[in-house]
Amino acid sequence: MTDYRAVFVEELTRVAPDIDPSTVGDGDHIQDDLALDSMDVLNLVAALHARLGVDIPERDYPEIATPARAAAYLAARAG
């Protein structure tokens, strides 16, 4: 069984290597709290697609705004 939160945080820290994965909370917003810019978000979406095969349309970006929301979103759409 895939741990979608762990996958999300791994890809997040690849896109933004200055983020310490051990400090990322379930409710941390990727832009407001973790300071990703729009290009980082696009890179994260691309990385998640490459790793999981999940298409994330722009209208769904709010669904991956926190690790907890992203894990639920990815679990519902993967596989």
From TrEMBL:
Gene3D superfamilies: ACP-like
SUPFAM superfamilies per the UniProt record, alphabetical: ACP-like (SSF47336)
Domain Carrier per the UniProt entry, residue ranges: 1-78
Residue ranges the record marks as coiled coil: none
InterPro entries the record matches: ACP-like_sf (IPR036736), PP-bd_ACP (IPR009081)
Stretch forming the signal peptide: none
Superkingdom, taxonomy of origin: Bacteria
Pfam families in the cross-refs: PP-binding (PF00550)
Protein name: Acyl carrier protein
